[in-house]
Write a structure and sequence with these properties.
The chain contains ten helices and no strands. By secondary structure, the protein is mostly helical. It has two domains: 107 residues, Cytochrome c-like domain (Cytochrome Bc1 Complex, Chain D, domain 2), CATH 1.10.760.10; 88 residues, Cytochrome c-like domain (Cytochrome Bc1 Complex, Chain D, domain 2). α6 packs across α10. The protein is globular. This is Cytochrome c553.
Length: 214
Amino acid sequence: MTAISLRLILQTAMLAVFFSAAGHAQDRGAPSRQGGLEAKLEYCKTCHGLSGQGYLGYFPMPRLAGQQPEYIEAQLRAFIERRRTNPIMFNVAHVLSPSMLTALATHFRGLNPKPFGGAPRGSIAMGKRIFEEGLPESNVPACSACHGTEGKGQNEIPRLAGQLYAYTVGQLTGWKKERGQGSAVDTSAIMAPTAHNLTRSQVEAVAAYVSYLQ
């Protein structure tokens, strides 16, 4: 077993125990609702950063700050219902009440730390073109058509502005690989065929461009 695998197992177990205990405590009415929210946010910070800015590491964790609350709630429900697979997030999410899902999503919506940046700038012009105009010759629609001209998303369509470069590359790459195999990095029926038509360099260009949007 590698050190990375062991770390993930321990982290999953720790989060599962904590959230389960917190959930039972809330059922008994022990802590206040605000106290329960603050306790859960402490564990969100473990992976997603002190201000929801994401985590740059071997396994990049997404920026949640400024994200559309409807999108966060929808993804947490997808983890609970196993329509989106991640052992850590399932153990975190499945003990959350509907009201807590809403409270967490609303909290992250109000955060706005400065994006990490750091993505390679050489292909930003290409990324901007794909984001704004798409690639008609490759049947790739403009990202802005759904995610907005500033990449801020709406309702269940996620904000891309300021998202970690490595995370966006990973998500788009996952959709490319999973097309037609019965599973994907989330439940989007739109993103899999779109990502499949992007080359690796185009994936990296789009990811770099949106990472610098604010």
